[in-house]
Structures are given as C-alpha cells and as structure tokens.
Fold this protein.
Amino acid sequence: MNAAEFQRARSPEAKRLREASILEAARALGRERGIRSVTLTDIAAAVGMHKSALLRYFETREEIFLLLTAEGWQEWSQALTERLRAEPDPGPAGVAQAFAATLAARGLFCDLLAHAPLTLERNVSLDVVRDFKLGTLAARVPITAVVRERLPALGERETGDLIATAVALAGALWQIATPPAEVAALYRSDPRLAHAVVEVEPRLARILTATITGMTHGQPQPRP
Amino acid sequence: MNAAEFQRARSPEAKRLREASILEAARALGRERGIRSVTLTDIAAAVGMHKSALLRYFETREEIFLLLTAEGWQEWSQALTERLRAEPDPGPAGVAQAFAATLAARGLFCDLLAHAPLTLERNVSLDVVRDFKLGTLAARVPITAVVRERLPALGERETGDLIATAVALAGALWQIATPPAEVAALYRSDPRLAHAVVEVEPRLARILTATITGMTHGQPQPRP
C-alpha cells in the first residue's frame, strides 16, 4: 500500500487495516534491531506514510509498542497454557521449563517486557495504560488456572509471584544476553568477563525451578 | 563552586573534585525525578557548568549513570555483606530478607539496575563497559562468600543465580512500584488495577525466600 492509497482510506475497515500495517512494521523493526532504537519516523517510513499521518492512528511510539506488549502477553499466555495442558504431570521443573522455553522463544516479547515499565507506560495517555493493564491481567488468568491445576500446592499469590518473576527475569536476562555487537565481542575476548555471557532459557529454567520448588515446600515466611 | 572557579581548576585534585561534583549532581537529580528524565544539560546546569565543559569529564550521560551504578553495586555489596555477617544463622528467609531490605532501601540503585542493560551500557565506550563489568564482578565476590558461609547448601552457580535474580527483580519491581503520579492515581482509583500496586520489599523477600528454599532442597534439574 502506498501513501496515496493510505490517504484515500476512510472506512472503519480501512482504518483497521492501516493500524494493522503500522503494528506489523513496528513488530518487524523491533525484531530486527531491538525496540529501543526504533523511532516513530522509522515506523512511518517502513509503512510508507508520513509521520504526521501516522499520528492520526497512534499517539506515540510508546503506544504502538505497548499495544505490541499487550498482544505479546495474550499470545504467550495461549502458548504457555497449551503447553502446560499437554503435560499432565510436569512437576516444578516441567512448569519452570515451560515458562523458560516459551519466553526465550519470544525475543521481541522479552524486549518489550523490559521496556514496558521503564519507558512504554510513561509516554501514553491514562486510557492506554488502563487498557494495557487490564489486558495483561486477562492474559494472566488462564496461566494462573493451568499452573494451579498442575501444581496444586501453589496458591493464588504464589502463582502471581511466579508469573511476575518469570517476566521480570525474562526481560532482564534477554537484555543482558543481547548486547550490541561490539560489547558481545568484548565479552568473548576477555576471560574475566565470561560471567557476562548469559543464556536466557537454561538460566531462567534453573531459577524458576528453584523458585517453584521453594513455593511448594511450605517455605518459612520472611521475618517482619 | 561557580563556573569561573571550575574554569580555573587544572590540577589532578581539582579534576577529581569536579568529577565528584558532577556525580553528586547526577545522583541528586536521579533520586529526585528518576534517572530516565535526567539529561546531560540538567546535570551541567545543577553543577554550574556549561554542557560542553562537562563533556571534558564524561563522554555521555550514560557514562555518568553507569559510574553511579558501579558505585551503587559496591556500596550495596558492603551493606548486604555487613548485615549478613551480623546474623549467624539467618536461614533462607533471613538471607532473602537481607537482600530485599538492602535493595528496597536503595531506590536510586534499583532505578539504575533496571536501566543499566537497557540503555546505560549502550551509549558508552567499550573501556567504560569493561570497567563497569569488572566492578560489578568484584562487588559480587564478598556477597557470594558470605551467602555461601550462611547457606552452605548453595553452590557457586546457585549464589550467582540468586544475585542475578535479586537485582533483576529489584530493578523491575521498583520501576513498577514507582509509576508517574497520574498513573499511580489511576491504579488507586480502579479496583481492577489493584494488582498493579506493588510493594518492593515484601514481594522481593517472599520470592527470594522461595528461590533460596528451592535451591537448598536439592531441586530436580529442568529437563533438557
């Protein structure tokens, strides 16, 4: 679709199609170079629109990426839920592995998870923040249900803590595991920096296995 | 110190003093409004220098904040280590509480922890990244030693995972717990968003207690 066609579209269906192309361009650019370095101008150029025209569809680049984060939550929730439904008795290690594998396979989502509270939620209207929060809340519901079915020792609060830990760690570990090329080369060249090289999936699986195991062991409460 | 005095200073000692005032200004501004919104121009103004003069001391705002992050690691390491040395038998919950309390008491450090891999490490020279990584590595050494003394069941790798989990969660939870004022008001006003209100210390203590408990229980390994 070129800029002239964009200008002609007026119907709700045409508007919906434009929004979808804008989101798809942002998704592709974010996957390619990390969302941190994708500007609104880049997205507009990729979709063949002027930046001012794009601003009729979305308020800011942060709104676009926050919508992709909400969409990522929904898609990940479905993938994780299906995987756990297919395993009748995964145990703590199987549940941890399911979280780790489904998150590590979604680089763009991990990138978005790290940016959402830091930058994305901070440059959009309150309505956008509200919709985003309600969307992520809805995506947690089926995850909570299947996790508690598979691990009956976990309460509502433990399951909430588990999801929060998984997404916070996935976001942080993915950022650490995906440095700029020259920093990655530095890590490989200096043996003292070997600890800086991180593999997301095995480390996340290991940590979450410990966390879930502890949650199912009737852990002592932290002192007040 | 005013701009004229700054321009006269030439000795290594004067240079050191200037660097210290620049870092102190960045620290104060970061504490006040969150490091995300502090620019190099803000720091220069607070310290009474021109931005161009400030650039003779530091390459970028990211270098300044990365130095503060390294300093934060060292200071936190000392506080945590002292606290754990003073408790002869803390158990998993006591160790978790020591991590949670010392991190939650350091808002600026939590803010820096979240930004370091996302933005700070990405706009500085390789020498600055190398020094930063070696600094954080050194700060982990005494923490690892005292944790393994207090919890002999933890190996080197588990202790490394524990420290990584603690700092990643502290960074993420602090960001979530410290939204802009109008977003905080939204959370309080809509009961469906009650889950968005997070208290860093108790939640971090609870999750880390579970993680350490699981690590000390000879957890099953995640499946390959």
Confidence is low (pLDDT under 50) at residues 219-224 of chain B. Chain B touches chain A through 62 residues (CB under 8 Å). Residues 37 and 67 of chain B are 17 Å apart (CA to CA). Chain B is about 75% helix and 0% strand.
